[in-house]
Amino acid sequence: MARRPVWWREALVLATALLLCLAGGIFHPDNTLGWPPIATYAVAGVSCAALVVRHRAPVIAVAVTTVCGMLAAPFGLLLTPLIVVPLAIAAYALAVHTEPRVTIAILLPAVALLVAVTPLLDGLSWQDGSRLLSVAALPLIAAALGNATQSRRAYLAAMEERALRAEESRESEARRSVAEERVRIARELHDVVAHQITLANAQAVVAAHVFDSHPEQTRSNLRNIIQTTKNALDDLRATVGLLRQAGDAGTSAEPSPGLSQLPPLLESFGRAGLQVTMDNEGAPKPLPPGVDLTAYRIIQEALTNVRKHAGTGSARIRLSWSHNRLAITVTDDGPDSQAAPKPLEPSAFTRSDRPSGYGLIGMRERATAVGGQLFTTNSPAGGFIVSTHLPLTPENAPTADKPAADSDAGRVSDAENGGPP
Question: What average pLDDT does this structure show over 389-400?
Answer without folding.
Answer: 61
